[in-house]
Amino acid sequence: MYFFRKKDPNRPTNGNLKAMHIINAIAIIVFILALIYKFFFAS
To answer: Cα–Cα 20 to 30 A to 11, which of 3, 4, 29, 35?
Structure first.
């Protein structure tokens, strides 16, 4: 998973990229939670 990869010193770390990664992580977490909810709590 790309979360645990070491920081690339060649890549510029600006605020937009960090915000994009945070939003992407939140979207993945919400998606997984929705799948769990669908499988375990839906009829």
So the answer is: 29
- Where along the chain do its domains lie? 15-43
Local structure of residue 9 (DSSP, 8 states) = T
Query: In which residue are the tokens 């790309």 written?
Result: 2
Name the DSSP letter for residue 2.
G
Owner of token pair 């992407």:
24
State how far the alpha carbon of 42 is from the alpha carbons of 8, 11, 37, 38, in Å: 42, 43, 7, 5
State pLDDT tens for residues 1-43.
Answer: 455 556 655 566 567 778 889 999 999 999 999 999 999 887 6
